Amino acid sequence: MGKKINAIFFDFDGVIVDSLQLWEQMFDEVVKLYHLDTKCLVENDGMNFTTNEAIQLMLENQQRFTNALSAEIIEWTEKFYIDNFHQLLRLNEHVVEVLEHLKANQIQIILVSNSSKRQVKYAFEQLKLHSYFDHTISADDVSKGKPNAEPYLKALSLSEKQMEEVLVIEDSLTGINSAKVAGLNYKIYNNSAFCLHPNYIADFRELIKDI
């Protein structure tokens, strides 16, 4: 990578926290409750949307979209997230240890997530993460979420670092593509689909070996 790493941009879901069960249950229930057709998501690679984008696409595909209905469904997902947070979500192993090491070594830390600002704020409050992060970027802070480059380019601008000084930590193809399009170096955390990739790491502590 050349230059010393002076900033790390972390994805949230799947990297900082294990939230797969929460998101899967939320998606299943909201689809049933509002009779949403998910076929359009599959056809358009459903991982490539924020929650708001996915809801809008499903409603438009069924010719049911109104601002009021979209807002109602989004509010339902936000409430589900908060109500089920402690039961279905947990910090990934060694996260706090690594964040503390990075802060002690004056590495800038920025969160870049496709989750909503409200979800990120609630999670940070509950998990006491605010003190570790210099900036947070949510789906509400950009016009286009991952896999578009905008979230990571915004983080780069906030960091005031050169591209070569930044490392992105992602776990999904959507996030990896966002980082790649932004021109940033990246590591892939704990996703067995990428276990043979040269940038794969299975243990969070591998991030601090050379920092």
From TrEMBL:
InterPro entries for the chain: HAD-like_sf (IPR036412), HAD-SF_hydro_IA (IPR006439), HAD_2 (IPR041492), HAD_sf (IPR023214), PGP-like_dom2 (IPR023198)
Membrane spanning residue stretches: none
Gene Ontology terms for molecular function: hydrolase activity
Pfam families per record: HAD_2
UniProt entry keywords in alphabetical sequence: Hydrolase
NCBIfam families the record matches: HAD-SF-IA-v1, HAD-SF-IA-v3
Record protein name field: HAD-superfamily hydrolase, subfamily IA, variant 3
Organism listed in the record: Weeksella virosa (strain ATCC 43766 / DSM 16922 / JCM 21250 / CCUG 30538 / CDC 9751 / IAM 14551 / NBRC 16016 / NCTC 11634 / CL345/78)
